[in-house]
C-alpha cells in the first residue's frame, strides 16, 4: 500500500479552475502508474484521469479537453489541473496507484472535496 495524500479542493464557481495535488513519500514514485478518481454522492467512483511512468495519459470522456493530469517525480506529486469546471464535476477526488485497466490499487484516503456552484 502506498500512502497518498490529496489536497487542493474547494468551492469554485462554474467556469472556474482548481489544481489538485497528490503527494507521497514513497521512494519509488517514478515507477507508478497513477490515477485520479472521483465519487459524487450516490454515484460510483470513476477514473477521471491517469498517467503512466512514461507520461502517457488517459482521461474520462466527461473531462477531456478540460482537465490535465501531470506528474513531478522529483516532488513525488501528481497534479490534476481542472479548468472550465461544471457543477457536475462536484465530487470527492481521490488519487491512487493504478493497475491494469486503471484499476485502483490503494485503499482510499480522505480525498479532497471539489464543489462547483454559483
Could you list some keywords that capture this structure?
4-stranded antiparallel sheet; 118 residues; mainly beta; 10 strands
Radius of gyration, in Å, reads 13 Å
Largest sheet composition: 6 strands, mixed
**Tertiary shape:** globular
Please estimate the helix content.
under 10%
Average predicted confidence as pLDDT: 94
Helix and strand composition category? mainly beta
Brief digest:
The chain has 118 residues and is an all-beta fold. The chain has no helices and ten strands. A hairpin with a 5-residue loop joins strand 5 and strand 6.
Walkthrough of the structure:
By secondary structure, the chain is mainly β. The chain has no helices and 10 strands. The termini are far apart. The model has no long low-confidence stretch (mean pLDDT 94).
Summarize the topology.
Elements: E1 4-7, E2 10-12, E3 18-24, E4 34-39, E5 46-51, E6 57-59, E7 67-72, E8 77-82, E9 91-97, E10 112-116
Parallel strand pairs: 2-10
Antiparallel strand pairs: 1-3, 3-8, 4-5, 4-9, 5-6, 7-8, 9-10
Amino acid at each position: 500500500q502506498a500512502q497518498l495524500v490529496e489536497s487542493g479542493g474547494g468551492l469554485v464557481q462554474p467556469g472556474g479552475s482548481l489544481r489538485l495535488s497528490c503527494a507521497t513519500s514513497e521512494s519509488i514514485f517514478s515507477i507508478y502508474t497513477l490515477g485520479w478518481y472521483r465519487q459524487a454522492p450516490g454515484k460510483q467512483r470513476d477514473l477521471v484521469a491517469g498517467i503512466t511512468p512514461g507520461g502517457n495519459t488517459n482521461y474520462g470522456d466527461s473531462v477531456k479537453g478540460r482537465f490535465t493530469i501531470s506528474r513531478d517525480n522529483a516532488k513525488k506529486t501528481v497534479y490534476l489541473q481542472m479548468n472550465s469546471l461544471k457543477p457536475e464535476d462536484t465530487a470527492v477526488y481521490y488519487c491512487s496507484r493504478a493497475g491494469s485497466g486503471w484499476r485502483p490499487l490503494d485503499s482510499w484516503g480522505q480525498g479532497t472535496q471539489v464543489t462547483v456552484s454559483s
